[in-house]
Structure formats: structure tokens, C-alpha cells
Amino acid sequence: MANDYVLAGDVGGTNLRIAAVSSGGRVLFQVSEPTPKSGEAGDLIDAAARLAEACITGGGGGQRPRSFGLALAALVNAREGLILSSPNLPELNDLPLAQVLSDRLKLNVIVENDATAAAVGEHWLGSSKDVESSVFVTLGTGVGGGLILDGKVYRGIDGTAGEIGHICVEPDGRPCPCGSHGCVEQYSSATAIARIAGELSRQDSTSLLSGQAKLTSKDVFDAAAKGDPVALEAFRTMGRYLGIALAGLVDVLNPELIAIGGGAAGGWDFFIEPVRSEIRARAFKHPAARVQIVRATLGERAGILGAARVAIDSLAESAPSRSVMQLE
């Protein structure tokens, strides 16, 4: 069928991407533009609708798609199509975005948390494709996550499950924008790597990072690649805290596989052994030995492909009616 495709979108704090995706996961057409920064929800809705129509023309030859899945960096109630809280785009807070876009485009629209969408993408076509129970962790500006349990997406009763970045690893640790203290996001994100390296470099004038006014995670990565002890220690610290958080998930969920993606996963070789070491030291012996810790394979495509899969699955049910959805 000419219209055997769906629309998939990824709304980030920096860029807005919309694609036409075939039922087999092939990206037929994709457009993107900077995410509107006006602070007005209407401007973002206008941009998403405009790009969606461009994909209908460019990817579907004018034929209407079967559904539209949209992933956002936000707490999302997918069942109700509601944006609960979006730190990067607060104008969307409490907005029934799925219904608003559905009315605008005359399409079935499903909204999803971006990390959960990426977990779906990896389960469909990526690193956890042949695994029934997996955890996806994304390391970027923050730390996000998504859960696939017994072949199903697990969202929780309010749709907020999978917020791995807000597992506490230091009870009296650094304050987090979520309102808590000591969240793993404050110790294992790209932002955290740069901060930790900066703190350490002030104590070691011989470091390649010493004296730099504002470090980035790439600066730390480049220094680690040259063997800089401060950069390597920053990654070790980051990996230790991430391992503490993941060890708890191994005990609670007993997953077959944990996939780690996101921009900061580029430092894999520098942090993965501390992650594995903490899991071995802290989790129950048998699940710790069983779980595979792997690098995610889809990269930036994970969110778009996951949103597409969510859109495809929504066709079986006009809207999610439970806190889990079967991945066929």
C-alpha cells in the first residue's frame, strides 16, 4: 500500500526532527529544524505540523500516514497523550499534545518519552533486538532510561517509569533539578563528567585539563584518549556511580541486557569496566553474571525508530489503554 508508513518525530531542546518511516523501519524521508525557543507552545506545534506535512509530501507522496509517534524529552503520560513535565520546553507542561496535534493533522498521534522511545527502537532494530527483558540507558546532558520487560514497554501507572537518571547514588549529594539530591544524573551524565574533571584538574596542575576555563565532556574524552590521569579518573568516577545505579536495577528487574547509548557513551572504553565492577560487587551473583552490558547500536536513529514503532503498535489499539504495550 502506498500509505503503509508512519510519521515519527523527536523533539529535543536543540532540534526538532520528523521522518516518514516504513513499517519495516526504513526512513523514507526526514526533515529537521531548530526547536522553537519562543516559549510559546503554539510555535512548537506549528513547527511540528509543518514538518509533518513536509514528510507526508516527501515521504508518502501525499498519501496520509497510518499514525504519528512523537518522542520528547519529558515526563509523558502516553496513555492520555499528556506532557506532564518538560524541563527543556516548559511551555508544553500539562499540555494534551497528542490530541492537539491529532486535531491539527487529522491523524492518530501518540506521544512518548524520548528515552523510552529509544529503548523501543533498540528493541525493534538494535542492540536488544532478540532480548525479552532489557534496560536502555542514555547518557547525554542528563541520564535517561527505558524499560522493556517480557517483550513489553513498561511505563508505570502514570507513564513515568524508566527515569533511571534519578536513582539516588549519594543520599546527601549534589542537588538535582528534579528536586532531589544525589541523583546518578549528577554524577554520570556528560555534564557531570565535565564538572568532575574540572574539580579534579584544579588539584593537579600537570593535567592537560588544568587551567581550562570551561571544560566539555569532549575535552575530557580527548584528554583521556591521551592518557591524562585526571580525565581517566573522571570517567572512572562516572562509571562507578553508573554501576551503583545499574546494580540496583539488576537486582530489581533481572534484565537479560543493559544497553548504554547517548553522546557520552563515546567514552565507553574509559568507564565500562568500573560499571561492570560495581555490578559484580553489588548485585546478586546470578543476575549479575547473566546480564549483558552492551553499547547501543542505533545512535541518533534510536528515538525516531522507536517513535515509529510506537506509532505502528498504536494501530492495534487506538490508544494505549494499559501501562504496558506489546511489541510485536
How would you concisely characterize the structure shown here?
The chain contains 10 helices and 13 strands. The protein is an alpha/beta fold and 328 residues long.
Task: Chart the SSEs and their pairings.
Layout: E1 5-11, E2 15-22, E3 27-34, H1 41-60, E4 68-72, E5 75-77, E6 82-85, H2 97-105, E7 109-113, H3 114-125, E8 134-139, E9 143-149, E10 152-154, H4 185-188, H5 190-201, H6 217-225, H7 229-253, E11 257-261, H8 268-282, H9 285-290, E12 292-295, H10 301-314, E13 324-326
Parallel strand pairs: 1-4, 4-7, 8-11, 11-12
Antiparallel strand pairs: 1-2, 2-3, 5-6, 8-9, 9-10, 10-13
Explained architecture:
This protein is an alpha/beta fold and 328 residues long. The protein is 38% helix and 21% strand. It has helices at 41-60, 97-105, 114-125, 185-188, 190-201, 217-225, 229-253, 268-282, 285-290, 301-314, and strands spanning 5-11, 15-22, 27-34, 68-72, 75-77, 82-85, 109-113, 134-139, 143-149, 152-154, 257-261, 292-295, 324-326. A six-stranded mixed sheet has the order 12-11-8-9-10-13, with helices on one face. Strands 3-2-1-4-7 form a five-stranded mixed sheet, with helices on both faces. Strand 8 (134-139) and strand 9 form a beta hairpin. Helix 3 crosses helix 10 (301-314) and helix 5 (190-201) crosses helix 7. The model is unreliable at 319-328 (pLDDT under 50).
